[in-house]
Specification:
The chain has 184 residues and is of the alpha+beta class. The chain has six helices and seven strands.
Length: 184
């Protein structure tokens, strides 16, 4: 929950302890390549992410497995999502997040057919599509975590992690309200 995330962030801060929580998929080489492409293609205006999104009663909505797609979306779009709409069926979740300046981020949570992970990023000047295969993201996450243990520098702002949890909670509230927009 957002309240639990706030408690963890406060506890880490009180003890000057590095805190990091994330999906390894944000460090996938294709996600990182999409971020580098901003230098030649301009800002990412929107992104569409697909993710396996199996459900679990203890982790409602996207919190269980769909969080991997939300993490990829945040790696691409950054913080600042203001509101979310979610249509949820037994087979899918379709989530639209509204960022400032009309930027939109989409997450398709897949529970039937072929799942997997991937995204398309839409820039000022071009598009990039990636179907993530293999597990290079684990290697890259491990490098990042080891760097944090060595330097004590946190590679991901805990407030971004907090916003990801708020995004997922808002998507669940939206789904429960038939797809009505919900603020983070």
């Amino acid at each position: 929950t957002v309240r639990q995330a706030d408690s963890l962030i406060a506890l880490a801060s009180a003890h000057n302890a590095p805190l990091m929580s994330c999906s390894a998929l944000r460090y996938d080489p294709q996600v990182q390549n999409a971020l580098r492409l901003r230098d030649q293609c301009g800002a990412i205006l929107s992104a569409d992410v697909w993710t396996s999104a199996d459900l679990h009663p203890g982790n409602p909505g996207l919190l269980h497995y769909g969080i991997h797609g939300v993490e990829m979306l945040y790696a691409l779009m950054g913080r600042g999502c203001e509101a979310v709409r979610c249509i949820s069926t037994p087979a899918y979740d379709a989530v639209v997040g509204n960022w400032p300046e009309g930027r939109l981020g989409y997450v398709r949570g897949i529970r039937c057919g072929t799942g997997g992970f991937g995204f398309s990023a839409h820039y000022e000047k071009g598009h990039y599509v990636a179907d993530i295969k293999g597990a290079a993201f684990y290697r890259e996450l491990l490098k990042t975590v080891m760097g944090m243990f060595t330097s004590r520098d946190v590679p991901l702002d805990p407030q971004e992690t907090r916003e990801i949890i708020a995004f997922i909670a808002a998507a669940r509230r939206s789904a429960d309200a038939g797809g009505a927009s919900r603020r983070l």
